[in-house]
Design goal:
The chain is mostly beta strands. The chain has one domain: Methylamine Dehydrogenase, Chain H (7 Propeller), CATH 2.130.10. The protein is 1% helix and 40% strand. The protein has one helix and 27 strands. Strands 3-2-1-27 form a four-stranded antiparallel sheet, with no helix packed on it. The protein has a four-stranded antiparallel sheet with strand order 7-8-9-10. A hairpin with a 3-residue loop joins strand 5 and strand 6. The chain is globular.
Length: 362
């Protein structure tokens, strides 16, 4: 089974292909060279998956490119595909996330999260977008803070069976959820700690790093916080800690199995003030019981001290069975596991710093 891996870096987008398990990965030359690619997306709903890339040019500004031939060609609209309306007196800094719409909804819907923190919706497959005004007008927005990486909506998780239910997360601000198609939004951070605030369990203001939805049980979600790993069993309304068994509760990514329930992966870092893997060991941690227990996975990963950082979108799974798992570091190395983390192989080395990854089985 062929797999396509999108690798967004600080100096362009790289596409890697592997035609069959066990074969070597082929990594192409950079698309959009010398531009930062902070978000990539794969919409698997068309016959040929549509690829999306958020281009952050220091000269031309941010834009979105789309490919319908697996990266052989790209197109950008003449007008900015994502832009704030004039009345907002705000300009787009960059795009941080893409998410295809609910499997039960309109197949042309694509969501995008941006910096500053805003949600945009496309009804033409990700070519053009409109601001979701209801979230922008939320009374909490003036108090949303800016994390070290910027003030951005970085997570969008539509409910696969109900197009009216969408959950987003931002840093900082926390988790917000709509159940009426985006007409209204509620902060849903009950149980998530913000240790850096006087009230450590506020209604909003948490520095959530990433959220992943359990694909077999979509009411269940997993969350990596700024110190804290959590699970929700009620579609993000309340959260409980699942950090016991991990070497640290700090980190950036969390990803869920694409088909099997209760299985997720995490890449811990020591602490917010020490952003290195615990004991400088390159290890991924997997849980197969929804976070009740965790097992390290490192077969094939570097055994020498590992000093790189894995960012929130620099870890992903593909849609194969068994699932492939991928991560990349700021040092420019990308690793893949074809067997759900049991063994690892290097996809690429000496790339620019890895910002985001997405993969799909073809």
């Amino acid at each position: 089974m062929s797999v396509l891996l999108m690798i967004g870096t600080g100096k362009g987008l790289f596409l890697a292909r592997r035609e069959q398990p066990g074969q070597a990965w082929q990594v192409g030359v950079p698309h959009f060279p010398m531009t930062a690619i902070y978000a990539v997306g794969i919409d698997p709903r068309p016959a040929t998956p549509r690829l999306l890339a958020a281009i952050d040019s220091s000269h031309f500004g941010p834009s979105v490119a789309v490919s319908d031939d697996l990266g052989a060609s790209w197109r950008e609209p003449e007008e900015a595909p994502i832009a704030f309306p004039a009345g907002t007196e705000t300009s787009l800094r960059r795009v941080w996330a893409f998410a295809p719409g609910s499997a039960a909804g309109d197949p042309s819907v694509v969501w995008a999260g941006t910096e500053p923190s805003a949600l945009f919706k496309s009804v033409d497959g990700g070519v053009s977008y409109e601001l979701v005004q209801s979230l922008w007008d939320h009374p909490h927005r003036p108090q949303w803070g800016e994390g070290f990486g910027g003030q951005a909506i970085h997570t969008i998780t539509p409910h696969p069976a109900d197009p009216d239910r969408v959950l987003v997360a931002m840093s900082t601000g926390g988790v917000y959820r709509t159940t009426d198609g985006g007409r209204t939004w509620s902060a849903t951070n009950t149980g998530i700690k913000a240790y850096f605030l006087p009230d450590q369990f506020p209604e909003f203001g948490q520095c959530v790093h990433k959220v992943a939805r359990d694909q077999a049980n979509p009411e269940r979600l997993y969350l990596q916080n700024h110190h804290g790993v959590y699970r929700s069993d009620d579609d993000g309304v309340t959260w409980t800690s699942i950090a016991d068994g991990l070497p640290s509760d700090f980190g950036f990514p969390v990803v869920a199995h694409p088909g099997r329930g209760d299985t997720l992966w995490n890449f811990p870092l020591t602490a917010d003030g020490s952003r290195f893997a615990p004991d400088f060991k390159c290890q991924v941690f997997r849980s197969t019981d929804a976070g009740k227990s965790w097992q390290p996975q490192s077969a094939g990963l570097p055994t020498e001290p590992f000093y790189s950082t894995v960012l929130r979108d620099a870890m992903c799974t593909d849609t194969a069975d068994p699932a492939g798992v991928y991560f990349g570091g700021r040092s420019g190395e990308v690793y893949a596991s074809p067997d759900e983390g049991e063994s690892w192989e290097r996809v690429a080395t000496q790339l620019p710093g890895i910002l985001c990854l997405r993969a799909v089985a073809l």
